[in-house]
Design goal:
Radius of gyration: 15 Å
Strand order of the largest sheet: 1-2-7-6-3-5-4
Distance between the termini: 13 Å
Mean pLDDT: 96
Low-confidence stretches: none
Structural class: alpha/beta
Oligomer: single chain
Number of strands: 7
Shape: globular
Largest sheet: 7 strands, mixed
Helix content: 40-55%
Order of helices and strands: EEEHHEEHEHEH
Length: about 180
């Protein structure tokens, strides 16, 4: 499923983000930029040692990546040239700034893509795994944030994919995109 907003196409795909042939994929990272499970583990395994080395350099330089922010590394062995690592919020019930922090993950990732001249980017569903963010709420925030950027930003990637691993997540994003 896809929808176009100005010059940007938002596309939903069910699959494995590590296989996407886009300029950059987004990693749902942790603040210390050390390998984890889920999307982070899959991306690091597929990307190889070079990705871990670049994350180590970033961690040494700035101590990691705060929640809601993003950093960029090589894609290593992935089809994507770059990985944008962003740290989503841990769900605490919705009243601890989680919606704003989640939206910031998408804004910061798009800003890095634009800064690096990238035209295509693929996101996973950030924070909906072990961080516990309700997928339906996360999907609405993710898609509304990208739509708002596409409609108002001076520069924007022309393709923004959401690569969703399972049926339930894909369904939540499909519903959210249908309602935009």
């Amino acid at each position: 499923m896809q929808k176009k907003f100005r010059y940007t196409t938002i596309e939903l795909i069910q699959g494995d983000i590590t296989e996407e042939k886009v300029d950059a994929i987004v990693n749902a990272a942790n603040e210390k930029l050390i390998g984890g499970g889920g999307v982070d583990g899959a991306i690091r395994k597929a990307g190889g040692e070079e990705v871990t080395k670049e994350c180590d350099i970033i961690r040494a330089r700035q101590g990691g990546c705060p929640t809601g922010k993003a950093v960029i590394t090589t894609g290593g062995n992935l089809p994507a040239e770059y990985i944008i690592h962003t740290v989503g919020p841990v769900w605490q019930g919705g009243d601890a700034g989680e919606p704003e922090l989640l939206a910031s993950c998408y804004k910061e990732s798009i800003a890095l893509a634009v800064k690096n001249g990238l035209y295509s980017i693929a996101f996973p569903s950030i924070s909906t795994g072990v961080y516990g963010y309700p997928t339906e709420k996360a999907a609405k925030i993710a898609l509304q944030t990208i739509r708002d950027l596409a409609e108002n930003a001076d520069r924007m990637p022309t393709l923004v994919q959401f690569v969703l691993f399972d049926d339930a997540t894909f369904g939540c994003y499909t519903d959210a995109l249908s309602n935009l």
